[in-house]
Amino acid sequence: MTSKRSWATRLSAAVLCVPLATPVGPRPHLTADHIRLSADDDGRSIHVLPGSSIELELRPDSEGGYRTPRSDRPDVLRETDRSEDSRGAARATFIAVRPGYALIVSEREPACGDAPDCDAGHPYEVQIAVDHAPQDSTYR
Q1: How does pLDDT run across 64-115, given as a tens digit for each residue?
Q2: To 5 degrees, how large is the angle CA 88–CA 93–CA 94?
Q3: Angstrom distance (rounded) from CA 46 to CA 104
């Protein structure tokens, strides 16, 4: 018969060998370059490194046009250029300044105009995660 002490010792050793946290999956791909986004990217989350530039171009469609895109966190994602035309096309360029999270948002301009039953729909949104550069990174 096994003594209580040897059983407890084996259990303690087994518990110490179990990892406390395991990776859930591969690390998201990190890029430090120029990224182009369009209306097709609505709802996405994108990981970038500081120094990355993000260009968003939104073109009007059958539902209407867009207002000028903006960042909700200019301390993380700073706007460097923007434009909007009378047809509903809008574009903006941003630079990832420092690690953190920011949303790029653009309100819709509905094709139905000011009619009482006109619905502008949901705004365009993309979440940007500006990650820390890996220690062994060759990124600028």
Answers
A1: 899 999 999 999 999 999 998 888 899 999 999 999 999 999 998 887 777 7
A2: 135
A3: 11
CA pair distance 61, 125, nearest whole angstrom: 17
Question: What residue type is 127 in one-letter code?
Answer: Q
For the four alpha carbons of 61, 62, 68 and 74, in that order, the dihedral sign comes to negative
H, E, C per residue of the chain: CCCHHHHHHHHHHHHHHCCCCCCCCCCCCCCCCEEEECHHHCCCEEEECCCCEEEEEECCECCEEECCCEECCCCCEEEEEEEECCCCCEEEEEEECCCEEEEEEECEEECCCCCCCCCCCCCEEEEEEECCCCCCCCCC
Residue 106 has a CB neighbour count (10 Å cut-off) of 23
The pLDDT of residue 139: 46
**Full-model pTM:** 0.69
- Sign of the torsion angle spanned by Cα atoms 45, 50, 52, 57: positive
